[in-house]
Amino acid sequence: AEIYCLFVVDEEDRLQGGVPLHLLVTARPDTVITSLMDRDVISVTTDMDQEEIAQLFVRYDLTVAPVVDEDQRVVGQITVDDAMDVLVEEATEDLYRMAGTSGDEAERDSVFGVAFTRLPWLLLCLLGSFLSGLVISFFDVTLEKAITLAAFIPVIMATGGNSGLQASTVTVRGLVMGNVASGLLVRTVLRETGTAVVIGLICGLAASGVAWIWFGEALVGVCVGVAMFLVICLAVLLGVLAPLFFNRVGIDPAVASGPFITTTNDIPGLLIYLGLATLLIQKLSGG
């Protein structure tokens, strides 16, 4: 391994500090080592998780870190290239999980092995679709009276699902990189909530205008616009809170993305839109 820094130890090999190699080779021969030594050295322990170590390298811009045992004795070092290898490995693993699959399937030749790796999340999506269909069936009278409103169901559902997925991806990345510490949770939620309001307003106004022009009825535009706004806000909030909750209870937050977010968003999104549509029908019918 390349040498970036020499670590100073005492008589019992316990870490005392570090001396950058360039300072050592340019110092005068009679220079005392303690005058060159940086005592504030970030070290890692032998029992620390590799992902946590990689996060330390990113957070503090480290190029090398000493490895110490429980008695603070130096037993080795980890360099930045080792940390980057871990980050790439962990990021690849998270991407597979967010897609509801596994990195192991790339090494499998069996069609059935690959299929059964992907099936669990797809079956969850299928169950969510059935539940969404059940919600739609409860509002069959509403859709019979205003079948044109059904044209906006996929628009609202897709926009809400994508918004939630964007928020969850940002949150998962923040958790993986260690940027979402416990003291920043409230700030993260507030920031994403504000973002949701802005996105919801813009998309809601756009959808409202299209619906108004398309059907020539202002109340239809209001219904579609308000539903779009509420669905996006709910989706983004869920996209932030779900990974945080999973992380808090000790489950990999990457599983809260992808199929989970999009499926979970559909049911409340349909309830919001079709509930507003029902109120619209009652208003137009004078009831």
Estimate percent helicity.
55-70%
Beta-strand level of the residues, as a percent range? 5-15%
**What's the number of extended β-strand segments?**
5
**What do the pLDDT scores average to?**
80
User: Cα-atom Rg, whole angstroms?
Assistant: 27 Å
In quaternary terms, these chains amount to single chain
Written overview of the protein:
This protein has 287 residues and is mostly helical. The chain has helices at residues 21-26, 33-36, 50-60, 80-98, 111-138, 140-145, 153-176, 185-215, 218-248, 259-284; strands at 5-9, 15-20, 44-45, 64-68, 74-79. The strands form 2 sheets. The chain has a 3-stranded mixed sheet with strand order 3-4-5. A hairpin with a 5-residue loop joins β1 and β2 (15-20).
Put the structure in a nutshell.
The protein has helices at residues 21-26, 33-36, 50-60, 80-98, 111-138, 140-145, 153-176, 185-215, 218-248, 259-284; strands spanning 5-9, 15-20, 44-45, 64-68, 74-79. The chain has 287 residues and is mainly alpha-helical. The chain starts with a strand and ends with a helix.
